[in-house]
Amino acid sequence: MTETKARTRGRVRAAFAEAGVTGWLHAVDIDSGAQLDAGADQPVVTASVHKLCLLVALHQQAEAGRLDLSEQTTCPPRDRTPGPTGLAAMLDDVRLSLRDAAYLMMAVSDNTAADLILERVGLDAVNRTTWRLGLTGTHAVHTFREFLTLLKEDTGPGGPQALTDPRVIAGLRVLDPAATNHSTPRDMTRLLAAIWRDEACAPEHTAAMRRLLGLQVWPHRLASGFPFDDVHVAGKTGSLPTVRNEVGVVEYPDGGRYAVAVFTRASSTAAVLPPADAVIGTAARIAVDALRACRG
Amino acid sequence: MAQPPLSQRIQRLERELGVRLFERTSRQVTITKGGTLLLDEAREILARSEALRATARRIQEGRSGLLRAALPPDLAGDTVAAILAAFQRRNDGVELELHELTTADQLAGLASHDLDVGLIRHPCDVSGLELGPVLRHELGVLLAHDAPAARSEAVPLTALTGYDLILFPRAQAPAVHDDLLTTCARHGYTPTCVRHGQGPSFTRGLLLSSRAIAFSPRDAHPAQDPDLTWRPLAGAPLTLRHSAAWPRGRGDAAALAFADTVTDALAATATAGGDLPPTPLHLRPAAEYWI
């Protein structure tokens, strides 16, 4: 039985409400173009999801011959863009290629690796890339370092503990799409579809990007909605206080492939909030099941 | 051949603005860079025009000196009275339209600009809001006076095992509801049954006739009721947090005065020592940000 889109949308919204979040979702069948829209044009804060745009810009520049992905770059331990993973967490000198930095940026959301690539690629190039792909609601205004500095400034002297204070949360500029890196769910599924259809770059480059998206280590969001050994999930998360996002592609053994973008904002200020992570998978699954039912 | 009305209107708009908004070929239409730059502004204008209509309706009805404010349904009667009296003293010219609304309903009203200011319970989604200081009220337990747990001076949450919990319906403030239950569980109390309700008579009936308890701040329980007992919880694990809230950038004098009045009234009974107890916060790697 095919559910009507309105009913599916209702189920997605109910899942968000149950998990204590406000959420926006867009899901697309990459091959048929069938879609499900639950707030697909809402301007949203991307946070680390913007690393996906940077990855595409990096590969486009490599394709154009402006850089070599195996080019070595050095990363001294001093003054790294802060973060809890990858180079950002390491203590000593690192020497690695641009594409290995891209691996760290995508697999563990390494902020230092992202800024290392961004220094080489440039913020303007990232915006040119998204612009040329028709992502008119997507724009980066900050490097990851600038972004985290802004977060730190607005958090104030109280440190991370202050982030449980509703008044501090209400004043964070990084949570305002108009003031920071932003996109829409529809733009992000469009970007993913361009990668999966080999439209963003030449096939060797899109294949490299798909590989990296498939190497992301986090199991708690999009992937949690598809607990099947024969279903492949590739994605990129983005997180900030109260914000939990993931965009990705779910591939079924029968060839069905679906681009899904889920952006959420939690009521609770808790940093650890498993239901808010899991609902990204739950909502994506509701949407993908509905799209698969349409396929017949 | 006559062009469809939409395309005529687009062309008229392009002439009026002197900017080409779309690239047209025989096969497709794409938005121009100029069009995109204007799109954000246009969206903003649409949102503002909604607000303008709301204000116009109020002026039309001759109610521009009106402040639409809200308080949560289970606020202590004395606190409500104190807020009203103090606000009338400070703001003689302003007509106050006071609503009794849950946090969820207040958030919806503040977002649609049907409400100017409210008193919301945290945590909740504070997108697009400005907040007054956050005030904390420790919760105690309300139970039948002959309940065994009522014999302790301060009741540990574990002593409530076996009692049903009477709690406000989750939809009123989902995150507050979940936080309360999570904290209870962490401290050893998982109610067999959560009964959703909050009217004082309904609550009193359940407290007296079945093995049930409710949580309430000290000032909110009916002190003169001989059949019910209020006891603090050992270690004060549960608190309610409130703050005044108004839509960002729309805090006019009347709204801010109401926010101050509410804050003062609540501060009289609030737990001292700021908003939050100094517990550590361990960010995990999946948080992705680091400060």
TrEMBL record, chain A:
Its EC number is 3.5.2.6. Transmembrane segments: none annotated. It is an enzyme of class 3 (hydrolase). This is Beta-lactamase. Gene3D superfamilies: DD-peptidase/beta-lactamase superfamily. It comes from the Bacteria. Residues 25-264 form the Beta-lactamase class A catalytic domain. PANTHER family: BETA-LACTAMASE, BETA-LACTAMASE-TYPE TRANSPEPTIDASE FOLD CONTAINING PROTEIN. Pfam families: Beta-lactamase2.
TrEMBL record, chain B:
It comes from the Bacteria. InterPro entries: LysR_HTH_N, LysR_subst-bd, WH-like_DNA-bd_sf, WH_DNA-bd_sf. Keywords: DNA-binding, Transcription, Transcription regulation. PROSITE patterns: HTH_LYSR. GO terms for molecular function: DNA binding; DNA-binding transcription factor activity. One of its GO terms (cellular component) is protein-DNA complex. Residues 1-32 form the HTH lysR-type domain. Belongs to the LysR transcriptional regulatory family. This is LysR family transcriptional regulator. It comes from Streptomyces eurocidicus (Streptoverticillium eurocidicus).
